[in-house]
Amino acid sequence: MSRAFVKESDDETVPLPDRPISPHRNFVTTRGIAAIEANLNRFEAAHRSAVAKDNKQAVAMALREVRYWSARRSNAEVVKPPSAPDRVAFATTVTLRREDGREQTFTIVGEDEADPSGGTISYVAPLARAAMGRARGDSIDLSGQTAVILNIIS
Asked: Is residue 86 part of a domain?
């Protein structure tokens, strides 16, 4: 019988492609590097568990995450917040007022630790890029609207 008509085993899995790595520098806060370590430890444990259970799909998924978090740890650059910031910078917390009167507070962090709903944004996000280097009282353009920086803390 020709090999073309033989069904491959369902137990075989195709290795998952790597998660994309950002081309930007991997700036992280001290919390960010701790989160990377925690994720790496969690997926290494998941990998060991999957191997012990002979779960090939779970092994592939865990290995993909281990590769990602290992790469992120290897190129992480911990940036400490300035002690008395007079300008918006990485790891600072910024409060601004938009034209409509709404106030918004956010902390600028690394890409892997960004959580806009939790008040953190990536340093490569448009809002962070617009604010970086600006001082208290400066105006920034946000998609055709203006916002004024009210406060900067570390």
From this structure: no
- Out of 47, 78, 109, pick the residue that ends a domain: 78
Domain count, the chain: 2
Whole-angstrom CA distances from 110 to 41, 48, 98, 104, 150 are 19, 29, 24, 19, 23
For residue range 73-121, list pLDDT tens digits in order: 999 999 999 999 999 999 999 999 999 999 999 999 999 999 999 999 9
Question: Containing domain of residue 51, as a range?
Answer: 15-78
Q: Hey, CA dihedral for 36, 37, 38, 39, is it positive or negative?
A: positive
CB 124 within 8 A of CB 77: no
